[in-house]
Amino acid sequence: FADSIRSTLVTTLIQLGALGALLIVVLVLSTLFVLRLSRSAELRAQRIGETKSRIEAILTRTSGAVITVSQDGIVTDFNRAAERMFGIAAADALDRHIADVAIDEDLKTAIRRVKQSAAGSDITLAANLSEQITQARRKDGRLFPVKASISVLKSEAGRMVLVWISDITERLQREQALKEALESALAGENTKARMLSLMSHEIRTPLNGLIGALQVLGETRLTDRQQKIIGTMQTSCDILMSHVNSVLDISRIDAKGIETAQEPFNVENVAREVYENQVHAAHLAGNTLVVENMIAGEPTYLGDARMIRQTLINLVSNAIKFTHGGVIHIRSTEGADGGFEIAVQDTGIGIAPENLARIFDDFVTIDGRYERSAGGTGLGLGLSRRLAEMMGGSLTVSSTLGKGSTFLLSLPGAARTSAPVAAPQGAVEATPPSRPLRILVAEDNLINLEILTELLVADGHHVTAARDGQEAVRLARREAFDMILMDISMPVMNGADATREIRGAPGPCSAVPIVAVTAYAQASEVEGFLAAGMTAALAKPISRARLRQLLAELTTDSAPAPGIAAIEEENL
């Protein structure tokens, strides 16, 4: 029996030992697990603390105000930028309802609207659900403009609204300053346009009388000395007119009022036309003008020959001014990409290196002394570079002081074509119409009226004069005329209104050509004349050749309809 008890006791002790060992293992494992959980919790708390610190640092240092609002409308965050922006301490804003915080109603409404729109939807992060420019109110009641970005966040505590607010007062002030600067610049451009229009009218009008009188006087019997004096006066008028045209051309180019043409032309023909135009002036200065064409095969290009011609005339004229007893070359060569280059090279005084960058600036004359040897407004080279760039090319210069200069006009990529080329322009005198015309001239300036009448009567035409637009309308409704030459700026009724009256009522002149004879030569002004019903516009000062040409064109069966003919001008 004792052995049985002993055996049972041993077995029990063994079982208890095993159970104790198991409990020890469990306790050890539990302790390790708890320690691991504790360490994980510590690390998580540390990361949360670090994240919170970073967020707090961001919210503290950001320039924008950050406000968070719980789903119950309670303010839970109000950073330092918000304190500065609204003038409200965080302690006075936290744990209060957003409606009780001194923020403008528009911003409160936006917050409520975003919160309501997100209610019930499964949104974890909805950034910029609402971004708007609105007003906010400081604690002292002052309103200021803000940009508010409002988002809805979903957290363990429920949904909350995050509001990011930027004070845009300075930005709007800068935008307003830019707007005012733009308006001021536009006003300046309008003033410039009005000034140019006035300058054109007030200079062209007396020039018209002077040039017309010289033309009439030149056709009378004069001595050689008198003819020479008239030639000098005409040359002076041409120079003055060139200065006026340069200013107007630059204005029109800057206003994008000139379009380039795409017509077939031959480079050598254009160079020859420039030669014919400038050879006399070159000889007067003791210079030899030479044309060299080094383009093989005489190819035909598409482009604006008139712009190229004017550019080259400006360059050759400039070379003549600064070259005396030398040689000026107009040299054409093939360029890159199928284009061409034309160099105007002189043996003149040259340009100092420090002045090369300035010569294309407007109104710049390098020789600025009172005793400067060459005249000019300083516009020709700037105009030439503008024209080159309008044609997709470039104008560059190289020079050696005391030895001469080379201006290179490059027009790359000009397309060659087999289309026929018009013959070179020549100084062919226009012939008057084959029959006498009955012409109504409306002009309030007595000098211009007398000169225009002299030019017309000398060609056998019958002229009836009107001194204002209203008188012109009355005569046009009563008598039949073959053409009406209409000044624009007249008392009682201007030329454009008079044209509308004549076109708008039945009468013997309702369909006859009406030509604006005007000193207003800007493209926008001419468009207005044509829109009023005029057939064409003839810019003052008027030459006999252009007047004859226009009369002949507009009194044929193929004459253009009212409002489609362009201005007749020698400049662009």
What can you see in these coordinates?
This protein is of the alpha/beta class and 572 residues long. The chain folds into four domains: 64-167, Beta-Lactamase, CATH 3.30.450.20; 173-254, Signal transduction histidine kinase, dimerisation/phosphotransfer (DHp) domain (Helix Hairpins); 263-411, Histidine kinase-like ATPase, C-terminal domain (Heat Shock Protein 90), CATH 3.30.565.10; 438-568, Response regulator (Rossmann fold), CATH 3.40.50. It has 14 helices and 18 strands. The longest helix has 60 residues, at 2-61. 29% of the residues are buried. Mean pLDDT is 80; it is low at 121-128, 368-373, 423-428 and 558-572.
Brief write-up:
The protein has 572 residues and is α/β, with parallel strands linked by helices.
Could you list some keywords that capture this structure?
572 residues; alpha/beta; Heat Shock Protein 90; 4 domains; six-stranded parallel β-sheet; 14 helices; 46% helix; elongated; disordered C terminus
Tally of separate domains: 4
CATH 4th-level superfamily of the largest domain:
Histidine kinase-like ATPase, C-terminal domain
Class per helix and strand makeup: alpha/beta
Task: State the major sheet.
Answer: 6 strands, parallel
End-to-end Cα distance: 140 Å
Question: How does the SSE layout of this entry go?
Answer:
Layout: H1 2-61, E1 65-70, E2 75-78, H2 80-86, H3 90-93, H4 105-118, E3 125-137, E4 143-155, E5 158-167, H5 169-218, H6 224-254, E6 263-266, H7 267-284, E7 288-293, E8 300-303, H8 305-321, E9 327-334, E10 340-346, H9 380-390, E11 394-400, E12 404-411, E13 438-442, H10 446-458, E14 462-466, H11 469-478, E15 483-486, H12 495-504, E16 514-518, H13 523-531, E17 536-539, H14 544-554, E18 567-568
Parallel strand pairs: 7-9, 13-14, 13-15, 15-16, 16-17, 17-18
Antiparallel strand pairs: 1-2, 1-5, 3-4, 4-5, 6-8, 9-10, 10-12, 11-12
Helix pairs in contact: 5-6, 5-10, 6-9, 7-8, 8-9, 11-12
